[in-house]
């Protein structure tokens, strides 16, 4: 009797997944057709505008070329951001140039793009579809940072969050939360292959929170980045991951599926390593733009009083209201939320984000969310606010910004 029941359950489950696969194939085809239609319209629009204006820089988008179709991880076109072949439609670029002089409307435009990439919640989905995020970090000294990043990823809406840390840190991190999957492998002699086994099951890697700066661990992180790059995995690099990049920029230079999230100190280190001169503090926009270009158009978020985001082409400014409270761990919250939003922005495809750079859209979403959490928590706790208080606000902050 029990066996029959179990068999029936297995059959039902198989049927469900078969049905789900067919449904997803149909949905893929529909999106593909929609995308092609939109690209044709954009091309027509570009031609019309070219006819109307003598401005030679108004080029029609070239993103529908077949080379963009072959992608590494079954994301839509937006994954392949080779700036040498990608000429974004300047007509659509304006709403992205967030400068202090044109705030409100532009802000709304980019918020709308973030809203567009949020995946719908339906009963047809299975665990994992809304995001599986890996955090590389956590050592004896720093167990809070990887926890903050990993739990934020879950609270933003990822289904699974896995931490790859040193042996010392693992039990401590597990004891903070039963929601996290924790692998004590980062100081293992075979750390790179231990993590590599999991990479095909992850959507984004966040590298650095609480990782520490021991040579052996940094070597392992380097090996993990190489593996992730070879699989086309999106990578967010923060904290000690940025220390590593400042020593050896070539590890990530030119990999446009990465986002770097430096604070002021980390930015200065990277800038000096890449441009061999101190940061020009009177020209922050120019500095972030130049660093991104020097890194091969990788998206960079320079965190601070205003978060500056650049892919070497554009500079976005996120000055959403936060607070003057600067407790440690806010950057970890940003990195965890960014891990999820990057995956969603890539998954959504170019039509949902007006063919703009998905990494910019994700970065703007994560910065706004971090600042909104800060603002809400500060309203409640004032000076005693901590990053844990901000994490408790993720759900309501997310709804307020993106789902109302
Ligand atoms: N609970 C945990 O487990 C947490 C663990 N964390 C983990 O700690 C690790 C090291 O990260 P980190 O940020 O302390 O290192 P780094 O960037 O070298 O800064 C060193 C010094 O630079 C300065 N400084 C910093 N920002 C500045 C600014 N905006 N403007 C100006 N100066 C600035 C400041 O110097 P000070 O003012 O103290 O002289 C600061 O002390 C890393 O793994 C991280 O993930 C954190 O995530 C927090 C929560
Ligand atoms: N001066 C500031 N005014 C307002 N908000 C700020 C300021 N500095 C930082 N923030 C906010 O805090 C976020 C994290 O930036 P921060 O410089 O604290 O990162 P971090 O040092 O890497 O953090 P962590 O403590 O996690 O290592 C920024 O994205 C921004 O939202």
TrEMBL record:
Outline what the protein does.
Answer: Catalyzes the dehydration of the S-form of NAD(P)HX at the expense of ATP, which is converted to ADP. Together with NAD(P)HX epimerase, which catalyzes the epimerization of the S- and R-forms, the enzyme allows the repair of both epimers of NAD(P)HX, a damaged form of NAD(P)H that is a result of enzymatic or heat-dependent hydration.
- For this entry, the protein name equals ATP-dependent (S)-NAD(P)H-hydrate dehydratase
Q: What is its EC number?
A: 4.2.1.93
Q: Which cofactor does it need?
A: Mg(2+)
Q: Which organism is it from?
A: Xenopus tropicalis (Western clawed frog)
Q: Specify the enzyme's EC class, one word.
A: lyase
Composition bias, Polar residues = 53-68
Residues passing through the membrane, by range: none
**Positions contributing to (6S)-NADPHX binding:** 210, 263-269, 332
Q: Which residues bind ATP?
A: 303-307, 322-331
Annotated family: Belongs to the NnrD/CARKD family.
Which reaction does this enzyme catalyse, per its entry?
(6S)-NADPHX + ATP = ADP + phosphate + NADPH + H(+); (6S)-NADHX + ATP = ADP + phosphate + NADH + H(+)
Task: Give the gene symbol.
Answer: LOC549064
YjeF C-terminal domain ranges (all copies): 110-401
Where is region (Disordered) located?
Answer: 53-73
According to its UniProt entry, the protein's GO biological process terms are: nicotinamide nucleotide metabolic process
Q: Which GO terms describe its molecular function?
A: ATP binding; ATP-dependent NAD(P)H-hydrate dehydratase activity
Keywords in UniProt for this one?
ATP-binding, Lyase, NAD, NADP, Nucleotide-binding, Phosphoprotein
């Amino acid at each position: 009797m029990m066996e029959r029941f179990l068999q029936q359950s297995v059959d039902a489950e198989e049927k469900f997944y078969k049905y789900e696969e067919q449904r997803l194939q149909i949905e893929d085809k529909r999106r593909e057709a929609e995308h092609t239609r939109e690209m044709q319209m954009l091309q027509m629009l570009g031609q019309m505008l070219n006819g109307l204006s003598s401005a030679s820089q108004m080029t029609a988008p070239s993103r529908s070329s077949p080379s963009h179709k072959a992608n590494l991880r079954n994301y839509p076109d937006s994954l392949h951001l080779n700036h040498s072949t990608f000429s974004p439609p300047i007509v659509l670029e304006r709403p992205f140039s967030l400068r202090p002089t044109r705030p409100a409307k532009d802000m709304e435009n980019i918020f709308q793009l973030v809203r567009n990439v949020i995946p719908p919640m339906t009963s047809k989905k299975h665990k994992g579809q809304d995001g599986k995020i890996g955090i590389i970090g956590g050592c004896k000294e720093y167990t809070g940072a990887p926890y903050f990043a990993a739990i934020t990823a879950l609270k933003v809406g990822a289904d699974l969050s896995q931490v790859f840390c040193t042996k010392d840190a693992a039990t401590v991190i597990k004891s903070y939360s039963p929601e996290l999957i924790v692998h004590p492998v980062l100081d293992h002699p075979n750390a790179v292959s231990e993590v590599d086994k999991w990479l095909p099951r992850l959507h984004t890697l966040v590298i650095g929170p609480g990782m520490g700066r021991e040579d052996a661990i940094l070597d392992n992180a380097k090996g993990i980045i190489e593996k992730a790059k070879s699989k086309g995995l999106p990578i967010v690099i923060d904290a000690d991951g940025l220390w590593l990049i400042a020593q050896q920029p070539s590890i990530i230079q030119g990999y446009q599926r990465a986002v770097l999230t430096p604070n002021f100190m980390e930015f200065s280190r990277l800038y000096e390593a890449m441009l061999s001169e101190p940061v020009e503090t009177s020209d922050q926009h120019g500095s972030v733009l130049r660093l991104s270009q020097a890194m091969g158009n990788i998206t960079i978020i320079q965190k601070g009083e205003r978060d500056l985001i650049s892919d070497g082409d554009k500079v976005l400014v996120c000055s959403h209201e936060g607070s003057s409270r600067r407790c440690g761990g806010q950057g970890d919250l940003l990195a965890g939320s960014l891990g999820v939003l990057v995956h969603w922005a890539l998954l959504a495809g170019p039509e949902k984000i007006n063919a703009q750079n998905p990494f910019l859209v994700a970065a703007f979403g994560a910065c706004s969310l971090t600042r909104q959490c800060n603002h809400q928590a500060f309203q409640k706790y004032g000076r005693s606010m901590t990053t844990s208080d901000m994490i408790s606000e993720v759900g309501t902050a997310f709804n307020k910004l993106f789902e109302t």
